[in-house]
Amino acid sequence: MVTDIQAQMDVLPGLDPRAPLLHVDDLHVEFRTRDGVAKAVNGAEFYLNPGETLALLGESGCGKSVTAQAVMGILDTPPAHITGGRVLYRGVDLLRLTEEDRRKVRANRIAMIFQDALSALNPVYSVGFQMAELFRKHRGMSRKDAKQRSIELLDQVRIPAARERINDYPHQFSGGMRQRVMIAMALALDPEVLIADEPTTALDVTVQAQIMGLLAELQRQRNMGLILITHDMGVVADVADRISIMYAGKVVEEAPVHEIYGRPAHPYTKALLESIPRLDLKGRQLNVIPGLPPALTDIPAGCPFRPRCGYARPVCGQQEPPAYRIAQHRIARCHFIREVLGV
Ligand SMILES: Nc1ncnc2c1ncn2[C@@H]1O[C@H](COP(=O)(O)OP(=O)(O)O)[C@@H](O)[C@H]1O
Ligand code: SF4
Ligand SMILES: [Mg+2]
Asked: Which intervals hold domain ABC transporter (predicted)?
């Protein structure tokens, strides 16, 4: 599907068609709670080009969902506070838009799907009604056209017998089918960016693979930018173009997917790769990364990965490593990249 740049210009003035589709620039988000200030996102930085799939990867609690919610403009503030950085959509900083413009972007340009489709869909309305409402509200379609378009979309996400199922309620669908419904709703207004936050985590392995395949296919057909958020390095190898690895609220390594699997540059990436369950090693003990991520209320000086890192030396406790550029599309934040790469 070809995206009409002129139509976007009408949605939001100032968009630059040559700018990256999305650029998260030095984003900081903190939660001020009774237990202190948790620095959930601590200078996160990544970009997304049109038609590209970026995997945002890291252990639970590293700030992936908070980053995604900041991009979408759906963070609860308070307790969350965005204390710095920019979220540029084609060069326009979304953090500075009025709530009305923000809503337009959210509805028409950037969409998101979540792990839990049941809580994202409204339980008291049929799936067809919820979808048709989108077309009626945002596209001014008639009831009949909206219904027809909803059936087409459910067909596209391969819900069998879409025409018959359109009047069913969310709880009448299986977990996998519900996730397909949520994908259909997210795609209803033809977004340029889709953020999928752990979209298959709640599903069993076979269904996971089907949903991942469907997302990859839809991304290609529509030439969308897709941000795939996951804690599971095993699920993204076949679908992502690039990977950004997050640790303690920062991107610690960024690389094209075919380069990172064979040749990680950051000790954390290396440890994540070693923790992927392998079919050929069935029964053998899984290599779990020792230790825990730092408490976000008390991130230590120097490199946040230091307490868990086999490469650490005294300098790591004193100086936080900057982002080193290794190659055109590769960055890593580590003082000892050469050792990790073995060069
Ligand atoms: N509602 C909240 N109140 C306080 N702290 C929160 C809240 N939501 C998230 N956090 C903090 O932000 C951190 C990052 O959360 P999150 O982005 O959900 O992690 P991920 O998606 O990577 O698992 C959490 O470890 C927690 O410290
Ligand atoms: S900077 Fe030091 S502690 Fe941090 S990842 Fe590199 S070697 Fe490990
Ligand atoms: Mg999350």
From this structure: 22-273
Vertex 132: Cα angle to 128 and 137 (nearest 5): 155
Above pLDDT 90, what percent of the chain? Answer: 70
**Domain residue spans in the chain?**
5-109+193-277+285-301, 118-190
Q: Which ligand is nearest to the CA of 31?
A: 1
Bridge partners, residue 197, by sequence: 229
Q: Does the domain at residues 5-109+193-277+285-301 carry the CATH identifier 1.20.1250.20? A: no
CA-closest candidate to residue 53, choices 235, 265, 186: 235
pLDDT tens track for 111-136: 999 988 778 899 999 999 999 999 99
- Can you give the pLDDT at residue 4? 45
pLDDT value at 235 more than 90: no
Of 153, 151, 138, give the one whose Cα is nearest residue 184.
Answer: 153
Cβ–Cβ < 8 Å for 336, 310? no
**Which of 253, 336, 338 has most ligand 2 atoms within 8 Å of its beta carbon, as the pocket-test mutant?**
336
Task: Give the atom of ligand 1 at the shortest distance from the alpha carbon of 229.
Answer: 21
